[in-house]
Amino acid sequence: MASSTRRGLLKNAAAAATGAVMAAPVASAQTAARTVKKDATGKTPGPFPFTPVVSFGNLLFVSGVGCRVPGTIEENTKWVLDEIEKYLIASGSSLEKVLKVNVFMEDIKDFDRMNAVYKTRKWGTVFPARNTVQPAKLPAGDYGLAIDCVAYV
Predict the structure, then answer these.
(1) What pLDDT is attached to residue 6?
(2) Residues 27 and 40 in one domain
(3) Do 69 and 79 form a contact (C-beta atoms < 8 A)?
(4) Where does residue 71 fall: left (phi above 0), alpha (psi -120 to 50 degrees), or beta otherwise?
(5) Which of 1, 10, 70, 93 is buried most deeply by CB count within 10 Å?
(6) What is the pLDDT of residues 93-120, one digit of tens each?
(7) Could you tell me the strand order of the sheet in which 53-56 lies?
(8) 22 is in which domain, residue-wise?
(9) Do 102 and 144 fall within a single domain?
(10) Is 10 exposed, middle or buried (0-12, 13-18, 19+ CB in 10 A)?
(11) What pLDDT digit, counting tens, does each position of 36-72 carry?
(12) Pair (78, 12) in one structural domain
């Protein structure tokens, strides 16, 4: 009886220790410092409740950048990618270090024209993973598209 109780305690202790070891990386990731980056101009976020770039470890999360100037989808795509590149460079990264991109298009019929500009950028040895969707509506003032991304430093 004593050995079966002891064996049960040892099994429980081993399981608990394994669980603690497995949970440790998650706990440390949850408590790791999140750093708020300033935008490419050195300004802190404006009146909207989001931060343009947030880093977590060596990852950078760039909020959606919508085009704020009228023009063709090609001009809008170039403008947005230029803005994203400014954020990345100001944060110590580049388009070459982008891992994931989300493109939100006002009209998915413009996909091929947007893509023609998108693929001219220097993304590294492989293109980043990407989603391209047409939401019901973009925020007021955005023309053509908005793009966000995840990169590393």
Answers:
(1) 45
(2) no
(3) yes
(4) left
(5) 93
(6) 999 999 999 999 999 999 999 999 999 9
(7) 34-37, 53-56, 59-66, 145-152, 98-105, 129-133
(8) 1-31
(9) yes
(10) exposed
(11) 555 544 555 566 677 889 999 999 999 999 998 899 9
(12) no
